[in-house]
Amino acid sequence: MTNQQEATATVSLPADPGALSPAEARAVFRSGLAVPTAGWSRGFAQANLIIVPRELAFDVLLFAQRNPKPCPILGVLDAGETTGPLLAGGDIRTDVPRYTVYRDGQKVDEPTDINEYWRDDLVTFIVGCSFTFESALREGGISIAHIDQGVNVPMYRTSVRCEPAGSMSGPLVVSMRPIPASQVSDAVRITSRYPAVHGAPVHVGNPHELGIADLSRPDFGDPVQIAEGHIPVFWACGVTPQAAVMESRPALAIGHAPGHMLITDARDSDYLVP
Amino acid sequence: MTNQQEATATVSLPADPGALSPAEARAVFRSGLAVPTAGWSRGFAQANLIIVPRELAFDVLLFAQRNPKPCPILGVLDAGETTGPLLAGGDIRTDVPRYTVYRDGQKVDEPTDINEYWRDDLVTFIVGCSFTFESALREGGISIAHIDQGVNVPMYRTSVRCEPAGSMSGPLVVSMRPIPASQVSDAVRITSRYPAVHGAPVHVGNPHELGIADLSRPDFGDPVQIAEGHIPVFWACGVTPQAAVMESRPALAIGHAPGHMLITDARDSDYLVP
């Protein structure tokens, strides 16, 4: 609750964040509120961020092309651009609730805006997020543990290596949702229809095969309780590029803080395949 | 028939090109045969090529990301790499039947290999091709005019502009297949299941809206006869990056010659979504 307490000192939480338009939500975050975005602007796609200097941009884009499940690119703001069609009228430097700043692969700051870090050679990659298919899962009768338990989704570094690209290499990061055994098939089927936002699960059932020793200790986000008869199901996660940045150690890189996403003007349904 | 005559002087056409494995087909082209690849290595995906210097590679990859229907990237060989998983044991400099070499946006050569043009800073983009869904259309009972008529698919520059990316900008290029009116819906449905190889049509029925004045005069490939009651249906085409190269005028760029594709080790069915 630390982030929330700090933020609500200056900007108050809207009564119904889910009813805000994406532009309204971004304006709230621009004013300094720093809370996780789950449930905000219902029906609109939320996204991960990775921002790097132009000299690293080809490697990042190629890394994404070679690892489309964890790194589905929804949009790119070219060097120095601070807005674009996914955030009409917005500003990528201020409109995400909280950022993570890396220098030489080390996290050095978690600011609520990145004005002081901005440079005209920074390229912004907007990466799909599995929050997009969560409403489809719920409409399909599948409850989402981390939403029901009021916490951030648990995310894990795995022992699976991504395909490297130039200077970029790193582990696959996954998000986990426990699913009742009788609904695993439905969860695969529903999420496979969203290939642009991680799509079908990468693994079902055995965390040890992914090199995850303890589900109760996620590397990002919060642990969730796994009910009797539920199977842990793993989806590729958009934090993967940040894990690669931490390994590749560029002089500067900026991401969102996990769970604190960019709320885009794209609708969840835009990413549904027929 | 000029290419074919020139080539068969040195390498003879296999008896059943459709039965060759992709590696066998690439070996034949490596030996110098220069014929269109329609019908070769049945069941395996054929691909467009665009090869540019490293300094232009981010712009090309971003152009592809912003224009995924005409430019679906299947694979990238990083600077200086001449082989990769899509052409195991192959060599991108020799394994395509015929290439097109551009200097400052002008076509200067159409060689059967690019050994003399190769440089260690060249990056190769392997781009999806609509040939991949033609067998699915035929299995769906839809005949393909250019196959039945034994010619190359007709392709047209349109008045539709692609989303630019850095130095890369240009028109959307489309391929056209005339489809019986009663089967247009089936053709849309079937090809929409192949989003990685151009997917659903971009336009149905009115060439003038695309700025195409005369269907009998394609900009690339051959004209086809359009039977009574058939509707011209247009799909985004992987020649689009070459059209952008011609506008953007980099010092050097290399593509395949239209219809003379790279035969990859990927199966057509690899690009079918569920």
TrEMBL record, chains A, B:
Pfam families: D-Glu_cyclase. GO terms for molecular function: lyase activity. It comes from Arthrobacter crystallopoietes BAB-32. NCBIfam families: PRK05463.1. Keywords: Lyase. It comes from the Bacteria. Belongs to the D-glutamate cyclase family. InterPro entries: D-Glu_cyclase, Putative_hydro-lyase, UPF0317. This is Putative hydro-lyase D477_017092. Its EC number is 4.2.1.-.
